[in-house]
Amino acid sequence: MVFFIFFLVAFWVAPTIATIFVVPCYCTTKNITKAKYYSVCLAFFYSIVGYCFKDPKTDPDLVRYIQMLGQYRGKTLVESFNLAYDNLFSLDIWFHILSKFDNDQLLPASYMFVFYLVVFYVLSDYRIRKNISNNHFILYLLFTILSINLGCILNTFRSNIAFVLFFLALYREMIQHKKNLFTFLLYIFSFFLHFAVITLIALRLALLIKNRKLLITTSAMIIFVPRVLEAVGSKTLGLVTDNIAFNQLVYFINRANMYFRWTEGGWAETVSKSGYYKVERIYYLIIMLFFIYVCIQQYRTKRKSESFNLSMLKNYQVYGIMYIAVTLVSFFITAPEYNRFISPFIPFACILFFDYWGDYYLLKKNSYIVPLLMLGGFGIITNTYFMNTFVSVPEFVLKVFFFVPILG
């Protein structure tokens, strides 16, 4: 605890130097409590990244959110509800709290802190549970940091935070077996932050079906989702009832249908003509296909070494397979909606690799090292290019590295 307080003080004075000292501690500790402390410190560094992200060249979502934040100033909590969006009460609470401070940069700082706190916490917690070697852990940690679209996290606040909090709730329920009030509140909070979470809820409810083979087999049917949305959307367009939950379901269906049908004009046309987004789409598609390959290899290894079949898969494994199927469908959308599915999922995909490395270390101790290094390395290129469309990357890096929180 004393070291944790020391590190926090150090982060307020010299965050870059403090991070350099925390990273090796985080990568090598096998103590869950210490791992939590180090995760907080590293997440604090990323909050500085968010704080320093100012005056982008283009007009990303963050600019719009900061404008919305101004509407909450001087309002009570009750007055804040439904101020920017209908029924997104989690967003209203978040903005209401931030509105008490006269500093708009606390918005990106706060959600960068939350996102990366969950990332570092889950990676370290599952690493300790599976007793993963330092080398393997560092490998997947680097892949996670480099492959996640940093610019996307900085700019698309609601969906990334909603998804990562929902995954944290799943992790607590299915891995840690913490089925308590906090886990339930995470589910609720994520839903009222972004209604796209209804997709994740649907997958969670699907697990009530005990036939694992049926669930995995029918996951392939998700490819027909665009057609189903089109058919249902045409019947429900403009439908309004007195039931808030039903209205949000209708809204989500029509919104999703719009994304699948949006191929011309505006943002969709910009993306379709962009060379960068074509490369990024292929890059993330390769990552998802790689995850599928790992799933297949893990299943084959289990079948060879022990009596194992699909009906023996655990809930979190089945959920992961269904989620990957949904993510693949998102690639059919012209706009880069795949980003909202992939970026929050990458840290939780560590479960695939840590399960494999933990259970079959002697058999496959060098598995996936080269692909992870290559994919992470390419992530440096995509991240640098994308960030440079918002800010000058060298100047931004210098701002972050030499930022002193106590001086603002």
How many whole angstroms does the radius of gyration measure? 21 Å
- Please give the share of residues in helix: over 70%
The number of helical segments is 22
- Weakly predicted, low-confidence segments: none
Shape verdict: globular
Quaternary state of this entry equals: single chain
Report mean pLDDT, rounded to a whole number: 88
- Kindly estimate the percentage of residues that lie in beta strands according to DSSP: under 5%
Taken in chain order, the helices and strands follow as HHHHHHHHHHHHHHHHHHHHHH
Distance between the termini: 26 Å
Structural notes for this entry:
The chain is built from 22 helices and no strands. It has helices spanning 2-13, 15-28, 32-51, 61-72, 77-80, 89-98, 106-130, 134-147, 150-155, 157-174, 181-191, 197-206, 212-219, 225-236, 244-261, 266-272, 275-305, 315-330, 338-342, 350-359, 369-388, 393-401. It has a domain at 203-390.
Task: Annotate the secondary structure layout.
Elements: H1 2-13, H2 15-28, H3 32-51, H4 61-72, H5 77-80, H6 89-98, H7 106-130, H8 134-147, H9 150-155, H10 157-174, H11 181-191, H12 197-206, H13 212-219, H14 225-236, H15 244-261, H16 266-272, H17 275-305, H18 315-330, H19 338-342, H20 350-359, H21 369-388, H22 393-401
Task: Sum this structure up briefly.
By secondary structure, the chain is mainly alpha-helical.
